[in-house]
Amino acid sequence: MSGSLTIVGTGPGNPGQTTPETLEAIAAAELFFGYGPYLDRLKLGPGQSRVASDNREEIDRARSALNAAVRGAKVCVVSGGDPGVFAMAAAICEAIETGPETWRRLEIKVLPGVTAMLAVAARAGAPLGHDFCAISLSDNLKPWELIERRLRAVAEAGLVIALYNPISRARPWQLATAFKILREVLPITTPVIFGRAVGRADENFVVIPLAEADQQQADMATCVIIGSAETRIIERPGLDPLVYSPRSAGI
Amino acid sequence: MSGSLTIVGTGPGNPGQTTPETLEAIAAAELFFGYGPYLDRLKLGPGQSRVASDNREEIDRARSALNAAVRGAKVCVVSGGDPGVFAMAAAICEAIETGPETWRRLEIKVLPGVTAMLAVAARAGAPLGHDFCAISLSDNLKPWELIERRLRAVAEAGLVIALYNPISRARPWQLATAFKILREVLPITTPVIFGRAVGRADENFVVIPLAEADQQQADMATCVIIGSAETRIIERPGLDPLVYSPRSAGI
Predict the structure, then answer these.
(1) Is the domain of B129 the same as that of B172?
(2) Per-residue pLDDT, A199
(3) What is the tens place of the pLDDT at every residue in B8-38?
């Protein structure tokens, strides 16, 4: 008998941001696969076990999870944020496409979650209130030239930009180069938001003009949002400023 | 004494996709402002009341909500999906920026939610697994020429595109024109996904090649996702196909 495979995202880390549907799927599963820090967020009960792996082993993890499901286990693959945004759902699909026929017969469910840019945007006000995009700054799986071309294209087109995977030990210079490119296209006063672990005790949250945006403010778990030329800041006495992108443009 | 204002999103409509944090904020509020159909999703108790308005009255609604909060009420402004994505958070910020000083002294909280494109993507597989953008097709608040320019720019740059507000009675032709433009840039086999009320009894969910994409498949509550040239379909015996965008590109 064949098992099942559910792919979930726990949200940005604040337990209040994991959906009830996802909590239910976690309660119903037997065997969990994921990056260790995401699995650490789960409270597993008796009869539930976990297989943690490193965050650069997505395809191997996907294959192990699919194999376990085919063998009959109720498998849950765990991402942070939303599992469909630079996360495990695409890795599972890639594995299925190149894998054995049995993997195509499995019941696969993907449950949506709150992805990092939405939590960072909510903390700031409404910077994603107008057209926007999400771009991974990792050049592990695409050439850096393509990333540069995309950054220029979306900034020139007036989209707000959310950067995922902005920096890591193996990719130390890419974020600084991205800021340099964006300073050539956007006003240097454009608001830039660095958000990490928003709503948690170890929150890091900074709003700064593009002119002063510095890659040192980010780590691999930071989501960086760069406004468009229309993005604005409302100063407030005694409160954090609100950063928002007006719903209208070019009128 | 001044009240407070919390801006929430109920998610795409499936009750299991409203976050616990949002449910808690709804339980704690007294006075609710929103588009009628979104307010209809709430189960209000004694001591809670609601002010419904039409979906083209965002700024008036924002001002009414801010006034009520300044007068001391615990106000909750309710969007569908995520309140920061083409929804009320930006309208509240706009109202504050041009409103009286007292509005800037209010405690404002925005709580993130599951926005429509994430739910539609999860239903399909992982079409947003690579770089993507979200564009509102409404030309009520921006010129149509700007929308056309953005569609061309992001399709040429290789981003998957999620279209919000694709069509309405007052905007009957824009979606067909958008498909026409995208057919000039993208392969006509590119997968297009129409998703509406995903996970609910009245779900509408269609995957079709760009060549056959027809605006009749959408209404104002539909989210339309157009793949990039890299987006793929995995056929599965007896199951819905999986649509996904590989994590790698241009390699």
Answers:
(1) yes
(2) 79
(3) 999 998 999 999 999 999 999 999 999 999 9
A59 and A14: one domain? Answer: yes
Residue pLDDT, tens place only, A127-152: 999 999 999 999 999 999 999 999 99
Nearest CA-CA distance, residue A157 and chain B, Å? 6
Residue ranges making up the domain that contains A180: 116-244
Cα–Cα distance, B175 to B157 (Å, whole number): 20
Residues of B with Cβ-Cβ distance to A235 under 8 angstroms: 104
- A154 and A62 assigned to the same domain: no
Residue A81 is given by DSSP the state B
**Are the beta carbons of A90 and A45 closer than 8 angstroms?**
no
Q: Of all residues in chain A, what percent carry a pLDDT higher than 90?
A: 93
Contacting A residues, span 220-239, partner chain B, CB-CB under 8 Å: 232, 234-239
Average pLDDT, chain A: 96
CA A96-B198-A59 angle, to 5 degrees, is 20
Strand order in the sheet with A31-35: A49-53, A31-35, A74-79, A4-9, A107-110
Domain end point (choices B63, B86, B110): B110
Instruction: Give the residue ranges of DSSP H helices in B186-219.
Output: none
Reduced to 3 states (helix: H, G, I; strand: E, B; else coil), residue A230 is: coil
In this structure, is residue A251 part of a structural domain? no
- Residue A82's nearest CA partner among A45, A42, A38, A126 is A38
The average pLDDT across A3-28 equals 96
| Whether A127 and A77 share a structural domain | no
**Do B106 and B9 share a structural domain?**
yes
CB contact under 8 Å between B82 and A118, yes or no, is: yes
- Total domains in chain A come to 2
SS3 label, residue A35: strand
